[in-house]
Design a protein that fits this description.
Helices cover 33% and strands 24% of the residues. The protein has helices at residues 33-36, 41-50, 109-112, 116-126, 141-150, 152-157, 163-167, 185-191, 216-222, 238-258, 276-311, 315-318, 391-396, 411-417, 423-429, 441-444, 453-463, and strands at residues 6-9, 12-15, 27-30, 60-67, 74-81, 86-87, 99-108, 204-213, 228-235, 271-272, 321-327, 329-338, 341-350, 353-354, 373-376, 384-388, 400-401, 433-436, 467-479.
Length: 480
């Protein structure tokens, strides 16, 4: 075990108050003994550093997919009091509202497998991917202002989706309070041609099949059945969100001095929640979050069209419907119980998924009895998972759980290890067709670069902060 940590039980490690100077609360990392071997010293230090921030409530938390990030660890969750707390762009990340969307279909693996290569090629051609990729849309500044206020609804109003999609999207696909007047010209420019694009890195569009059902009742409510074809989309706010984060990190660095905030790491730059700097960042972050929801909505629309063409089938025959869409890089004001008292807090989730329990008022009616669907993508060679939120998550983690597998190798290390190998052929031999825009992407994204997502999901399931419903295995992958 890493020095200074204490094991609480089989799924939790404590980062005791005092692990680093100035901690206001302790930290908890959800990890079992197997995944503990992958814990990075830098990531543990970041959990402790976050615990020093003003107004932090209960604990500084990290999920089992934890790894070192910018300021806050990826996989981190932290909530702050609205009276004396802070908001920090580092607690959200550069890819604001990076998230995951899952579609289900009426199709089975047997029906789609013979045309898998054609389907992957079609999706690759219809949904632009790669660094700086440009989409089919060219938005004027007025278009973008409308999009930043309406989010996914902006896309649906233009025919890129259906009204029912919005009900099955976290926050209805838009956060209220976005303010386009707080966005820089540079961000508008970067966002102008990137709506409806995957981007690069770990972003993907994946054709999967339901390999295993753990909870039949929940799977029925979600419309999932064995051997069924599903499609997962993983992307965020592209260069637009990155620029918003960059712009406001500069604002926050000045705010740290202005408000006399002492930080153990300048990457934790932040401002008091009630300050003008914090209000501006939150309104700009909401705009970027809405850009991301519109982006995933547009990609879903072109995915539907691609399937219709390749399968020569009508929308009714395909039955492509949205299961749910979740954000995993975001800050939200939510109500939580602290020491028996209900309080409104600003919850930062950076590489963590909201996991609200059955009955929560923010869930759509269709999932109110079930609890929030939680979508956890793995690496391109193994599996992804569908889970649901629980009451225990509300009690322990501000209604949060993991967001993915979590890297174990840097991109540079992965490229080095993949030298001389044909990753695409290895994948094909394993029955998975892959296409990638970036030459190095497949090496960076090979399975060995990640923890096994099955182990990550088992930890949150055993800890009770989300519950397994189904395992999905990849058949065809478009990588950024």
């Amino acid at each position: 075990m890493a020095e200074g940590l204490k094991r609480i039980d089989e799924t939790r490690l404590e980062v005791p108050k005092g692990y680093t100077d100035g901690m206001r609360v302790g930290g908890i990392i959800y990890v079992d003994k197997e995944l503990e071997a992958f814990l990075e010293e830098g990531a543990i230090k970041q959990v402790a550093n976050v615990a020093t921030l003003p107004g932090i409530v209960k604990k500084s938390l990290a999920m089992p997919d934890i790894h070192t990030g910018y300021g806050f660890a990826i996989g981190g969750v932290a909530a702050f009091d609205l009276e004396n707390g802070i908001i920090s762009p580092g607690g959200v990340g550069y890819d604001i509202n990076c998230g995951v969307r899952l579609l289900r279909s009426n199709l089975t693996r047997e029906e789609v497998l013979p045309g898998m290569k054609d389907l992957v090629v079609k999706l690759y051609n219809e949904v632009p991917s790669g660094v700086g990729s440009k989409g089919k849309l060219r938005l004027t500044k007025e278009d973008q202002k409308s999009l930043l206020l309406k989010g996914a609804r902006w896309a649906v109003e233009r025919g890129y989706g259906r009204e029912e999609d919005l009900e099955r999207t976290e926050s209805g696909g838009a956060m209220e309070g976005a303010d386009p007047s707080l966005i820089s010209d540079r961000a508008f420019e970067r966002g102008r041609a990137q709506q409806g694009t995957l981007g690069s890195g770990n972003h993907f569009l994946e054709i999967q099949y339901v390999a295993e059902i753990y909870d039949e009742k929940a799977a029925n409510i979600l419309g999932l059945f064995p051997e069924q074809i599903t499609i997962m989309i993983h992307t965020g706010s592209r260069g637009f969100g990155h620029q918003v984060c960059t712009d406001y990190l500069e604002v926050m660095e000045r705010a740290v001095g202005k408000y006399g905030i002492t930080l153990p790491d300048k990457e934790l730059a932040c401002a008091p929640v009630k300050s003008p700097e914090a209000r501006d960042y939150l309104a700009a972050m909401k705009a970027a979050a809405n850009y991301a929801w519109a982006n995933r909505q547009c990609i879903m629309h072109w995915t539907r069209e691609a399937l219709m063409k390749v399968m020569s089938a009508s929308p009714e025959e395909l039955g492509l419907k949205l299961v749910y869409d979740v954000a995993h890089n975001i800050a939200k004001i939510e109500e939580h119980t602290v020491n028996g008292v209900k309080k409104r807090l600003i919850v930062h989730r950076k590489g963590a998924t909201r996991a609200f329990p059955p009955g929560h008022p923010e869930l759509p009616e269709v999932y109110r009895e079930l609890g929030q669907p939680v979508l956890i993508p793995g690496d391109m060679g193994r599996a992804s998972f569908v889970l649901t939120g629980t009451e225990k998550a509300m009690e322990e983690t501000f209604g949060s759980t993991c967001h993915g597998a979590g890297r174990v190798m840097s991109r540079h290390q992965a490229i080095k290890q993949a030298k001389g190998r044909a990753i695409w052929r290895e994948m094909e031999d394993a029955g998975i067709v892959v296409m990638s825009a970036g030459k190095r992407t497949l090496a960076e994204e090979m399975s060995e670069a990640y923890k096994d997502v099955s182990n990550v999901v088992d930890v949150v399931h055993r800890a009770g902060i989300s519950r397994k419903v189904a395992k999905l295995r990849p058949l065809g992958v478009v990588k950024g």
